[in-house]
Give the backbone structure.
Amino acid sequence: MVRRSRSLNAAAALLLASSTFFASSWRRCFALVDWRAAHPEEGRSAMEVVELQLRALQENDMATSEGIAKTFEFASPSNQAATGPVERFAEMIYLGYPILLNSKQFTLLSALKLAENEYAIRVEVEGTWAGKQIFVWLLSNTGDGTGWRTNSVMPDGAE
């Protein structure tokens, strides 16, 4: 939910190149976590955090926005500062990323380790009312005990 830089364009190109291999070889190697009970903590992979956020948005209750609130909880402190409070974050999701809400399905296409504490994860989302769209999640782990957190989510311009 932040603008893409030149280095992110390069990362997106690498993600695109690796997505065919990744999509055909990746197998779900972790049990589904109840997103309602989950909290940011060490022990989850970056991919698990993205899946948790996507599942929360997919099962979001429009009356309470609890899935959006859970997604915000897994945003990095800098992302929360830029997009919060949670009510403002919810408005941004409803207006700018509606395909993520109550989606039909999503697929984790590829994951690229950018640095020891940074990942880029490419995801395809099939909307309930719209078609398909690809997004790139950028995550970091600061080592503060809260595990992988989302720095930004952006549409993938490499389509």
In short: The radius of gyration is 15 Å.
